[in-house]
Batch of 4 targets.
Target 1
Amino acid sequence: MRDGQAAQRLDALLADPVLANLMVALNPPGEETRLVGGIVRNALLGEPTDDVDLATTLLPPDILKRGKAMGWKAVPTGIEHGTITLLRAGRSFEVTTLRRDVETDGRHARVLFGRDFREDAARRDFTINALSLGFDGRLHDYFGGEADLVARMVRFIGDPDTRLREDYLRGLRFFRFSARYGEGRLDPAGMAAIARNRAGFAGLSRERIRQEVFKLLMAARVLPVLEQMDAAGLLPDLLGIESDLARFAARARLQAQHPHLPWPALARLAALLSRKGLVDPALQEALRLSNEEMRWLEQCAGAEDLITRGAAHLASWLAEDFPLAAGEAIALAAAVSAEPERILALAEAAEKHPRLHVSGRDFLAAGFTPGPVVGARLAAFRTAWIEAGAPESEAEQRAMFSWFLGGGTGR
């Protein structure tokens, strides 16, 4: 089913001298070690990956012993679950003894070590992640993962309900992997199982939900996946807060037209949230956002509010008062505007806003008493300066300051 180039990419994996050295050490007579998971999947697709995982019949002490004997640094990163990390030549490889589950609680599993590659593969989440490549170059595909890669379909292995009840995080991973590797309609059986088991999301840690949500938002096909999630009523279960998919779709269209605009994960979250959800106090807990991230979102909301109320002349003010998120607020406002190009022009103005040379010290020098009145007068002057076109030269600003003090504005 694979083409010649895919076969060549698989051969190239095993021809890598560093990996070949490791495979020699981990394939003694009577034992077997294979490449598994993402490294095999992405090689078939012709896509890069930094993670190299191996599954082996060797027990953890044997992995440690053989790795060290071949000059590798061995770190018992998850030895209780059979995982040893081997490092050499600036590279790392995770080697895990074959396992089988004996008990699960919806997030964690108690496992026993085994020697059956098929049984180990059956523990994985999706068919496209259960592929393995032997040292002899043979591709092992127990559940039709290669055909699903060709079809660009993400499917659970076996019974979707069983896979979800073993680990409810797989429901979020289903959407993230579909947005990364899938095309078209999401697997109906998977969607139906997630809908039936949606209550299980509540038991997941907020940190893990945050990780999956942010990865999903950065995936190439996030919009069609979010649309299908929304149609199934699953977005509230994912975020736990109010969202606005039409707003996200508008921002995605703007990004397609202006790909130079920055659009990192936090900005994508701001686009997905409704205007109300953007300032919802529950948001921080729902996605374990840091205080700095919350400040960014609050600034984005404040700046967007000014722009959408028609304050087009406030470009320099946006950059002063909302330095963290002025650019994204402009992009969001443009996305939902009938005049996006006019509003986008504010972004350049916000980045190159003129400096205000007048400060509180000037008011003190003019005889004002230190205190809140100085701040209030400075804010009033800045408003007048912006409304006058925000002249850049210090001489013009000083002349305006003199006019401001003597123009009946009072102290």
Note: The longest strand covers residues 91-97.
Target 2
Amino acid sequence: MTKKTSQHDPYAVLRIKEFLFFLNTRFFLTLAIQMQSVIVGWQVYKITGDELDLGLIGLAEAIPFIAVSLFSGHVADTVDRKKIIITATSFLIVSTLALLYFSLETNTIIKDHGTLPIFLVIGFIGIVRGFISAAFPSFMSQLVTRDLYTNAATWNSTVWHVASIVGPAMAGFICAVSFTAAYKVNIALICISIFSFLFIKSKPLPKKEKTETLFESLSAGIKFVFKNQLILGALSLDLFAVLFGGAVAMLPAFADKILHVGAIELGFLRAAPALGAVVMAIIIAYKPPTQHAGRNLFLSIAAFGGATILFGISENYYLSLFFLFLTGAFDNVSVVIRHSILQLATPDHMRGRVSSVNSIFIGSSNEIGAFESGVAARAMGLKASVVFGGIMTILIVAATAKIAPKLRKLNMKNIE
């Protein structure tokens, strides 16, 4: 009598040609965005020397991002998603050209107006990111079959985190030469991402079940999320964990005042969480966290909070690198689970709007979390603010575990 076994293929989605082009686009675009985050943060901090300004960078991007997110979700469900991504990414090039101009020694705008022009450009980038964030995950779901959603989410997350390792490290080295050189490389990477995306065919939009007004379309995504305990619980948990537990925004100040290192070391600090995420992604590719997804989600975010506390306490550069590595590893478990829940539980015709709500919860929480970190650092001091954030993350995990039992007991194989 032979025993039947179902064999998991960790490389299934990598055999889909268009998905490989998608991952290539994802890699170079993320590489550029991660580089830009380090360049702008380091440039602003060098101009002002104020931790609060690091937080204000996040707020300047988050407010316009949130303002357009619901509308961008509606657009992603009604307009060719490939056209949205190409158009928005082209505007990202224009924005980076403006930042490049501000970095030139011959420009007088920064000398006359301080960092205000940089913040205005970052605000425009927030609008651009709002449209990219709604269209990108919605388009990805059209490239793979439903049974490959978790596998696709794993590799998508892996590529994002690999780029998040390389990008900050590159930015650190090039910023040591000049901000102008760093922005030029940044623009080249965005151009490569657009070129790669051209090799993917446009996909037809899923048919809507009924004709909706603009207001009905915008509100439908919100209603769907708030009626679904699994999606709402996963998004809320990640929202508050990122909001309080993110130490990345304060890294320029940590590098300068606590660890006493420069731009190159800052690049490695920014890359450490992503390296941890990649290592975890390799593990997840072979052993997906689907069977006890809810339990794994809560444990990973609690561990993320613990690693954040240890980073806040550390004054040793190499220990700080290790603790940041752990934050990335634990965070990636929650990222893969959350993305899988969204893909499996969302109807095709609502993916853009639900992705936009997800972006409001998660995408903007990084920037608002950066602002919270800046305010907390000003009020409590750098180290105390990060420790406080880690403690809040653990408390939020405990509270969510109590009020969302369906999420805590989740097995993703049971999602229909």
Note: Residues 1-6 have pLDDT under 50 and may be disordered.
Target 3
Amino acid sequence: MAYTTTAATGNGTTRVAITGASSLIGRSLATLLVARGDRVVAFQRGEFSTDPVDADVTAQVEQHRGDVRDRAALDAALAGCDVVVHLAAKVGVAGHRDEYVAVNVDGTRNVLAAAKRNGLRGVVHVSSPSVAHDGQSIVGGAADPPVAYHGTAWYPETKAIAERDALAASDGVCAVVAVRPHLVWGPGDVQLVGRIVERAEAGRLALVGGGRALVDTTYIDNAVTALTAAVDAVGPGKACAGKAYVVSNGEPRPIRELVEAFCRAADVPFEPRNLPLSVALRIGSIIDRIWSRLDRSDEPPLTRFIAEQLGTAHWFDQRAVRHDLDWQPTVSIDQGLKTLTDWFTASRTDIPSR
């Protein structure tokens, strides 16, 4: 990855903790912070490691294994830090509400409390644009206030509660900024690109409303430099304190175009079925009602929330985040797709023949 924004020119004296550091964003953020000379503390349930080519980064990261539901573990990790980037979350659409509450709501409250106990100047709370999506199209929207009710979509509902708590906790000693990266993708992504490729390979790829909805996405490098800019900007009395920002490439494209590009990069068939939005909403609502009763832990094929996300436009005004965080994306979607294609090609080349 090549980071070239002004966000990558820190003074190298910041000690930054990252919860959920083993995620794609977490690993990439740690790599950038180490590269610019910052001291990084990784906090996650499993082992933290970057790509083998960045093994030297792993060696320079102070590791703490723990869970955001464990206050003592958080205190141990955040001691002596200046800022914490709170990435840890329960994602997806499968599971019971109490599971999402425990991690996304209670876990966030624990991180906020630990930050204050340990004298940190700031918290970068990583949220999601879905917290403010009410099922209607968002066209050039700002970071609107979180929506209180999301049906049975526990992820956006609990992330909405967590963001409200986080911003309310911002004060003159420990400031909080919420950053909502929108649909992050790139090499190694298993959440967006990985699922699309998997469904395309299995012949189960479907587009809601023909994939005509216009959406913003965020290439991984841009998401990471935005978070780094937030690390530098957050603090008591700063412009971003107590505010939320949506981060994206600022290049809205039709979903169909993006999905086709991901399939082309992975060299898998692009043969989607079309599902009208009205039909997708009805099917999603039915699945919402029955999935939890089946006590299944796997991801359902469709939910009403997913249908709304795939069938409605959502792209955002980027002026506030670029002004207040002194940040702008430097990797275009087309550049990112070229890198993604190269990554898939190299991945296939690295697979030993049988």
Note: The mean pLDDT is 90.
Target 4
Amino acid sequence: MRISRRSLIASALLAGLASSLAPAQAEDYPTKPLRIIVGFAAGGAPDALARIVAEKLNQRWGQPVTVENRVGAQGNTALAAVAKAEPDGYTLALMPVGNAAVNPALFASLPYDPVKDFAPITQLASVENVLVVSAQSPIKSAQDLIAQGRAKTASLTYASPGAGSMAHLAAELLARSAGFEMTHVPYRGVAPALTDVMRGDVTLIVAQLSTAKPLIDSGQLRALGIASRERSKVMPELPTIAEGTGIAGFEAVSWYALMAPAKTPDAVIGKLHGAITEALKVPEVVAAMAAQGAQPIGNSPAELAAVIAADTERWTKVIKEAGIQAN
């Protein structure tokens, strides 16, 4: 087929126009309302973190930033919607560690790929987890727990709010790292799991510190260690699990990141990253996140991608070795 000189010139002009418009559009961004899609119900930590960020973006840019809750399939429904959204920076996703680094190994198939379908912006915050037993338990420390597990003097059990939850994976990682076995007791939610741990019906649980701390303070739970690399600023007297057990580098942290659809322009990602990381330094934002038991992070897109890769490797290994399957 013969292509005329006029058609070639028109095509070149259109290509040039498109390339000249892209930077201009990125420079003007945002020019319309944004939305952050959250795969969990309103009122929980993920929803609260998204709303904190949304308010600051609205204040900075003067554009409405709404939080849309799309509950279903452990957050997978919401992320599938964002993966298919226009990559223009106006539809974003709050992505927890579970959806980024756990679900790909937990589910036989997913309606999204956390690496191929998304462009990282930044980790918003991490949420500390704590290893706890009943206040009446004979287990006084993490080292006591490991000693009992290895000696097989008692049948050790651990609670979680469901298969593949961070509570489930963290306890499995601890047992496998220390060389002993525990029996998983899944519940439909954190509240009933904590209740049975407090009563001594189940040996332990790894719970979010913000949830467990009131029960620790009231004398109903005993804290054995923080599941982070560093001690908690909230409970600085409590050793990390690594310190208490000698398991070097032990870590089981919950975190939340902000992601955009893949192919979102780098300039738009840069604007979002700059605005969000600045907001995370504001004292009132730090305080609001602390109320949710969260600590701001604000790393780079490349650093977030590295975190996802490392956590995917860690939790995939645990899931495969333990034979964990989604509920």
Note: Residues 129-245 form a domain with the D-Maltodextrin-Binding Protein; domain 2 fold (CATH 3.40.190.10).
